[in-house]
Amino acid sequence: MPYDEALATRLRHALSGVAGVSERSMFGGLCFLLDGNMLCGVEKTRYMFRVGKEKEAAALARPGAAPMDFTGRPLGGMVWVDAAECRGWRLAGWLSLARAFVGKLPKK
Q: 105: pLDDT confidence band, cut at 50, 70 and 90?
């Protein structure tokens, strides 16, 4: 499944000053990694953020968020966010939440 290049560009711009960020095609979309650990990504009309299991319930309570699953089973600690609900300061907030979790993981 192809990803939306405009959404990918938004993420690239938002992450442009962050050291250790790289890109990789994964899950049929485009993922951004922080020091080798999956941070966030983009698909057709939505973003993916890795927030960790401790923050998952709070993340799912935010507008536009849904559990991330591919096989009918949610991937713990990861959420989809509808692109329409993830612009400007909201995108920055999602990235901050994901960086708070992923930034604590050991570098790969």
A: very high
Residues 20-39 have pLDDT tens digits of 999 999 877 899 999 999 99
Residue 107 belongs to some domain of the structure: no
- Residue 63 φ then ψ, to 5°: -60, 135
Report yes or no on 48 lying in a domain.
Answer: yes
Model confidence band, residue 73 (pLDDT cutoffs 50, 70, 90): confident
Rounded-to-integer distance, Cα 49 and Cα 100, Å: 11
Q: How many domains does the chain have?
A: 1
Contact present, 99 and 14 (Cβ < 8 Å): no
The neighbour count for residue 27, using CB atoms within 10 Å, is 16
Q: What is the CATH number of the domain that holds 17?
A: 3.90.1150.30
